[in-house]
């Protein structure tokens, strides 16, 4: 079997969803994503058996561009994350009745197609194309189905679009420059390119603009909280669960191998920015009253740590970043789903107006607690393994980095537990909070099983990319 | 050459049909005639030939550029069927004028002699002056025609004076002779002055800084279909002619001439994109967007001979996207007095396919991947970086970022405003929709497989 099948199925699914009516759209999308999840698992099996599942085909002869999709441990892990999270995200969206659902789910599948393509592509230009294609659907999802009145929404989404587009154009310029040096866009050629420190610096910075904005790394984060807040839940899940992983993945795949020759000062500055971002986002999260915004900033804090680890550039950092990307994806989808459930019952995201859920919905509280613990990295959950590896990688580079980055765990525990206390515990309010439905139970259970299962036996995942 | 004769006969035939009162058959016959001309043109693909003492030359690149012009004219004539519905008694004039315009464009790329170039330029310009002022009862159209005529004839004057000086330096109008003279003999000062004067005129014709001021006003005042013609066919024809001349003259210019062109590109890109941000009239917006694209196309001129396939690709992508965009604009604004962006409110709800078409066309111009415009920009950037024009490329990248804002503004207006006037009724119009969809399909196809065009050279 070939990895390109996944891309084809997503496109076909997107077309089929668009052609269907609003009622069946969600179901078709779910089926498509489930098929792809199964195929991804089959592909993993084939990959582990040593079969070749890559696809390469010349596309344009001048300039030399080929449609090359190569599977290795890193891209396979990201592919698994995408294909396995998507059914969960779609299932989680069943709570909400969206108008024009066929268009929405078609965009969702198209975005999954673009993201899967980004993770698989091994030709710089094809990778860039998928990278940009992923931006359009999420822009329209946020613009057309988002919350708040459309003028505010428009401003937020246009900022988001302009910001990320601006960053990626510099990446394109970097690729074009690399092409003039090597005569090829293929990863295998680009990573072998010999760059002087000066060239490497410019290319590193051009890539950093693209990835720093996407992840986002301080000080390029200003679009993030607003976009997360105004997007519909399904959009927020896609953004935080999968899309921002594109940035970290790209650091590991493109930026560090190609521009690894970058001067130490720039690398240090970038890592320090990541760490500033961790502390800064944690402090804002502490003061947030809006559940969605709090989660957005907590996401930024966690991803800052992942990015810092990725920029360390040693193998520990590499592994830690991949582990934490997977962990963070499941945790964020889980947390945003929980927030969505609360907001459906209480009709608000304001933490002040919540409270007393525990006595009314013990199952919900249990799930919340498990995912929350995974988010703050409690041992036994998958979050712990990722955070620990990343901090270890930072300490290998410089102990002080690890010390400062480590505050994220303390602060994270503080703001998350404080939020939990205010939102879920406390005295019972007048409002009724219904216990989770079967569907919600199922989604949350799957996420919890993944988080605890991989927390206890991470080898299942790490075998993919540690030889 | 047979193409040129066929086109000329076609233009006359259209006028004759009017005499015999066969008005209804004019547009279909013209379309067929254009297809025939396209076929004749493609037949010459592998031949290298020259006619009338090297007045007209035929080779692969002229055939390709001419094919693009013919295809664009085909679309424009097809749009005219609906556009001139209210003055259908004049359809023969309008249609034949467009064919004459095409003949001008043909001469502007197939010339082997500067005299032929000037003739082509004048044929193209004069038809455009007429078309710009063709909405007689509209004061704005009169203004546009007058403005364009006055400034355009000045520009033609510059070009003519430049040609005269070049003749003075080389004693020939023939391109081959000029190349021969300029490479072998020491050229007097006025050779450079001559080409600089031509440069002024050419910059005016393609609407590049600092001679771009006419474009927004003339685009706005002209009838919408004339604006379409100006921003697609006339623009790419002028750029193609400029490119052909630059290949001949640039090697003979002083070394810092390249810096001048690079500066003009940077300024054109910045002016075009910044000014477009605040426009609320879609025609003016497209005018400024056209100015910025002229900047991109000038990049190919800077890069010289190797950039020819890339320039051709960029032109095709730009012009085809322009046709698609303007067809939808025609559709929306068909009975509006002014073409404001707010008229597009809620358009997506009424006509989702056309709204998507316009979005794709604008995104192609903005350079979003997989659409043809993206590859156009990419090819130019890669080639420019190869030749070391870093600052030009960085400016182009930054202005591309700016440009996305005004394109996306139009798209957002179409998709979000729910409360379009409830009583807005969009008249059905098969021709506009058909042309828009056909053009965008071409754009997508050459976006998916850029090799189709690049490998032709």
Automatic annotation (TrEMBL), chain A:
The chain crosses the membrane at residues 73-92, 104-121, 127-146, 158-180, 200-221, 233-254, 266-287, 294-312, 318-343, 364-393, 399-417, 438-457. It is a multi-pass membrane protein. InterPro entries: NADH_Q_OxRdtase_chainM/4, NADH_UbQ_OxRdtase, ND/Mrp_TM. Residues 122-407 form the NADH:quinone oxidoreductase/Mrp antiporter transmembrane domain. The keyword Transit peptide does not apply. It comes from the Bacteria. Keywords: Membrane, Transmembrane, Transmembrane helix. Belongs to the complex I subunit 4 family. This is NADH-quinone oxidoreductase subunit M. It comes from Paenimyroides ummariense. The lineage of its organism: Bacteria, Pseudomonadati, Bacteroidota, Flavobacteriia, Flavobacteriales.
From TrEMBL, chain B:
It comes from the Bacteria. It holds the Pfam family Proton_antipo_M. Its EC number is 7.1.1.-. It is a multi-pass membrane protein. Residues 113-403 form the NADH:quinone oxidoreductase/Mrp antiporter transmembrane domain. The chain crosses the membrane at residues 26-43, 63-84, 99-132, 148-170, 190-211, 232-251, 257-276, 285-304, 310-332, 353-376, 388-408, 429-454. Coiled coil: none annotated. NDH-1 shuttles electrons from NADH, via FMN and iron-sulfur (Fe-S) centers, to quinones in the respiratory chain. The immediate electron acceptor for the enzyme in this species is believed to be a menaquinone. Couples the redox reaction to proton translocation (for every two electrons transferred, four hydrogen ions are translocated across the cytoplasmic membrane), and thus conserves the redox energy in a proton gradient. This is NADH-quinone oxidoreductase subunit N. GO terms for biological process: ATP synthesis coupled electron transport. Its main location: membrane. It is found in: Cell membrane; Endomembrane system; Membrane. InterPro entries: NADH-Q_OxRdtase_suN/2 (IPR010096), ND/Mrp_TM (IPR001750). The lineage of its organism: Bacteria, Pseudomonadati, Bacteroidota, Flavobacteriia, Flavobacteriales. NDH-1 is composed of 14 different subunits. Subunits NuoA, H, J, K, L, M, N constitute the membrane sector of the complex. NCBIfam families: NDH_I_N. GO terms for molecular function: NADH dehydrogenase (quinone) (non-electrogenic) activity; NADH dehydrogenase (ubiquinone) activity; quinone binding. Keywords: Cell membrane, Membrane, NAD, Quinone, Translocase, Transmembrane, Transmembrane helix, Transport. It catalyses: a quinone + NADH + 5 H(+)(in) = a quinol + NAD(+) + 4 H(+)(out). One of its GO terms (cellular component) is plasma membrane.
């Amino acid at each position: 079997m070939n990895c390109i099948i996944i891309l084809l199925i997503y496109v076909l699914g997107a077309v089929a969803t668009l052609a269907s009516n609003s009622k069946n759209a969600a179901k078709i999308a779910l089926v498509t994503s489930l098929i792809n999840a199964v195929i991804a698992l089959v592909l993993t099996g084939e990959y582990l058996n040593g079969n070749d599942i890559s696809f390469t085909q010349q596309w344009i002869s001048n300039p030399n561009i080929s449609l090359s999709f190569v599977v290795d441990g890193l891209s396979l892990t990201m592919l698994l994350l995408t294909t396995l999270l998507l059914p969960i995200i779609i299932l989680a969206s069943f709570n909400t009745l969206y108008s024009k659902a066929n268009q929405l789910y078609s965009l969702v599948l198209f975005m999954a197609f673009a993201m899967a393509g980004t993770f698989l592509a091994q030709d710089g230009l094809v990778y860039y194309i998928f990278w940009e294609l992923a931006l359009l659907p999420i822009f329209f999802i946020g613009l057309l189905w988002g919350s708040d009145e459309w003028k505010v929404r428009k401003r937020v989404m246009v900022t988001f679009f302009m910001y990320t587009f601006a960053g990626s154009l510099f990446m394109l310029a970097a690729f074009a420059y690399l092409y003039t040096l090597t005569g090829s866009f293929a990863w295998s050629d680009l990573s072998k390119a010999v760059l002087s420190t000066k060239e490497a610096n410019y290319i590193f910075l051009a890539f950093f603009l693209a990835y720093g904005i996407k992840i986002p790394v301080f000080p390029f984060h200003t679009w993030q909280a607003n976009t997360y807040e105004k997007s519909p839940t399904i959009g927020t899940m896609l953004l935080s669960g999968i899309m921002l992983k594109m940035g970290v993945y790209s650091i590991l795949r493109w930026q560090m191998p190609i521009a690894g020759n970058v001067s130490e000062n720039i690398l240090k500055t970038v890592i320090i920015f990541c760490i500033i971002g961790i502390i800064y986002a944690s402090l804002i999260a502490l003061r947030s009253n809006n559940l969605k915004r709090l989660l957005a900033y907590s996401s930024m804090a966690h991803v800052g740590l992942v990015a810092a680890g990725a920029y360390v550039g040693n193998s520990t950092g590499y592994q830690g970043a991949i582990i934490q990307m997977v962990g963070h994806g499941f945790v964020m989808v889980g947390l945003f789903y929980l927030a969505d459930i609360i907001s459906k019952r209480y009709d608000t995201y304001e933490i002040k107006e919540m409270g007393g859920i525990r006595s009314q919905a013990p199952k919900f509280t249990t799930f919340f607690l498990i995912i929350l613990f995974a988010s703050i990295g409690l041992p036994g959950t998958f979050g712990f393994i990722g955070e620990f590896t990343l901090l270890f990688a930072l300490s290998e580079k410089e102990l002080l980095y690890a010390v400062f980055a480590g505050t994220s765990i303390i602060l994270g525990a503080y703001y998350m537990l404080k939020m939990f206390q205010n939102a879920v515990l406390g005295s019972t309010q007048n409002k009724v909070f219904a216990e989770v439905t079967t569907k919600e139970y199922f989604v949350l259970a799957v996420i919890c099983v993944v988080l605890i299962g991989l927390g206890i036996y991470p080898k299942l995942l790490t075998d993919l990319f540690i030889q | 050459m047979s193409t040129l004769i066929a086109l000329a006969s076609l233009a006359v035939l259209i006028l004759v049909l009017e005499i015999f009162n066969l008005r209804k058959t004019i547009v279909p016959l013209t379309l067929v005639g254009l297809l025939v001309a396209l076929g004749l043109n493609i037949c010459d693909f592998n031949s290298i030939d020259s006619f009338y003492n090297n007045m007209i030359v035929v080779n692969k690149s002229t055939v390709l550029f001419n094919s693009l012009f013919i295809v664009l004219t085909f679309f424009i004539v097809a749009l005219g069927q609906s556009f001139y519905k209210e003055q259908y008694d004049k359809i023969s004039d309008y249609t034949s004028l467009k064919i004459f315009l095409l003949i001008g464009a043909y001469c502007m790329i197939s010339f082997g002699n500067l005299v032929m170039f000037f003739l082509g330029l004048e044929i193209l310009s004069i038809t455009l002056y007429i078309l710009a002022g063709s909405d007689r009862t509209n004061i704005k159209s009169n203004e546009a025609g007058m403005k364009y005529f006055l400034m355009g004839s000045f520009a033609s004057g510059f070009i003519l004076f430049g040609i005269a000086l070049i003749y003075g330096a080389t004693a020939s109008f023939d391109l081959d002779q000029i190349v021969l003279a300029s490479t072998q003999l020491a050229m007097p000062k006025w050779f450079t002055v001559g080409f600089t004067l031509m440069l002024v005129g050419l910059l005016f014709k393609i609407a590049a800084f600092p001679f771009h001021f006419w474009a927004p006003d003339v685009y706005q005042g002209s009838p919408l279909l004339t604006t379409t013609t100006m921003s697609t066919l006339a623009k790419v024809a002028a750029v193609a002619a400029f490119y052909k001349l630059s290949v001949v003259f640039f090697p003979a210019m002083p070394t810092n001439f390249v810096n001048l062109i690079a500066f003009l590109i940077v300024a054109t890109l910045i002016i075009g994109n910044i000014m477009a941000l605040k426009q609320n009239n879609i025609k003016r917006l497209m005018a400024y967007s056209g100015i910025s694209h002229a900047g991109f196309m000038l990049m190919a001129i800077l890069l010289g001979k190797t950039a020819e396939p890339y320039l051709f690709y960029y032109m095709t992508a730009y012009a085809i996207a322009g046709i698609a965009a303007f067809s939808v604009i025609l559709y929306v604004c068909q009975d509006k007095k002014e073409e404001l962006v707010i008229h597009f409110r809620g358009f997506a709800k009424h006509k989702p396919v056309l709204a998507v078409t316009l979005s794709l066309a604008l995104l192609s111009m903005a350079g979003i991947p997989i659409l043809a415009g993206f590859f156009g920009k990419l090819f130019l950037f890669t080639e420019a970086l190869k030749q070391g024009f870093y600052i030009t490329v960085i400016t182009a990248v930054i202005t591309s970022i700016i440009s996305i804002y005004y394109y996306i503004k139009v798209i957002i207006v179409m998709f979000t405003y729910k409360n379009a006037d409830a009583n807005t009724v969009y008249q059905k119009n098969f021709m506009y929709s058909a042309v828009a969809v056909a053009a965008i399909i071409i754009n997508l196809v050459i976006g998916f497989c850029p090799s189709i065009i690049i490998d032709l050279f």
